[in-house]
Design a protein that fits this description.
This protein has 283 residues and is of the alpha+beta class. 21% of the residues lie in helices and 51% in strands. Helix 1 packs across helix 2.
Length: 283
């Protein structure tokens, strides 16, 4: 969840700055020269919000109804943490100005997130990427409401610099072929994500997600899971409930049901289960 928020944060910062440019009357020309000036403006302003450096290779499109950003890179500590082949945004200028930030379509093509676990319980290095603005609990984010009606992610990847184990779960070192369709609502600093579909392929250890749907919301320090339906090649799980104080002392208040559950499949990510399964096999 934190990884997704960091990627969305970077995109949201760009969107908020673009809205500011529209509202101030900056976007009044359709020339290549002006689009290049706008690209440099977005990069310069966005970098004030980041503990890193954003670059955008090209900005195009009809600025009154949508933009295309190509070859987006965010570098932190001399290494890329986020790269995106291209980002497409579709909006209505009047909705942008009058409804906080209201975006109709956001498309991310081949986003790649590079993660490195920090020692102890300090989480991920990417958690330092966004400078604090508004804060609720231990979270921060842009200071204006944002709605994105339709988000599409195609062929995304997450690459881990080191093997990461959390709560006995061994996270795959590489997650590829991430495809997702979702919607996003943000009201400083609360998130709601409606999931129509999410799928990916994980390796080392192998774990594939065929489909994920439902909604996820974060309010205060609680994470709410509403009608989550998760399907893998060998298992099917339904989850409904909440994780209170999820970032500090998690308290699980959830209902979990399954009509098909493969211990062998889950065991690929749980070392203890793998050990038990191996012991039974040897005996």
């Amino acid at each position: 969840m934190r990884v997704i928020r960091r990627l969305i944060h970077v995109v949201l910062i760009i969107l908020v700055l673009l809205v500011g440019a529209v509202g101030a009357g900056i976007v009044v020309m359709e020339t290549t020269w002006f689009k290049n000036r706008l690209r440099m403006y977005l990069v310069k302003e966005a970098n004030q919000y980041l503990n890193g450096e954003l670059t955008i290779d090209r900005l195009g499109g009809n600025l009154f109804s949508g933009v295309e950003l190509q070859k987006i890179t965010v570098v932190m500590d001399g290494r890329p943490v986020i790269t995106v082949k291209d980002i497409g945004v579709r909006y209505n200028v009047m909705e942008l100005i009058s409804h906080g930030t209201s975006v109709r379509v956001l498309r991310l093509d081949e986003p790649v997130v590079h993660l490195e676990a920090i020692g102890g319980n300090n989480g991920w290095s990417i958690s330092r990427l966004i400078k604090k603005q508004r804060q609720e609990g231990n979270r921060s984010g842009p200071g204006r409401p944002i709605t994105i009606q339709d988000i599409g992610v195609s062929n995304g990847s997450v690459v881990f610099a080191n093997q990461f184990v959390a709560g006995g779960v061994e996270i795959p070192k590489q997650v590829e072929h991430i495809d997702a369709k979702l919607a996003f609502r943000y009201e400083p600093v609360r998130f709601t994500v409606d999931l129509s579909h999410v799928s990916f392929r994980g390796s080392d250890p192998t774990f594939d997600l065929n489909s994920l749907s439902g909604s996820v919301a974060i309010k205060d320090d609680d994470l709410y899971l509403n009608k989550i339906a998760l399907r893998t090649p060998e298992s099917s799980v339904a989850i409904d409930g909440a994780i209170q104080h999820y970032s500090s002392k998690p308290a699980f208040k959830m209902q979990i049901q399954s009509d098909k559950l493969s211990v062998a499949e889950i065991g690929r990510m749980f070392r203890r289960l793998r050990t038990c399964a191996s012991s039974r096999h040897l005996s």
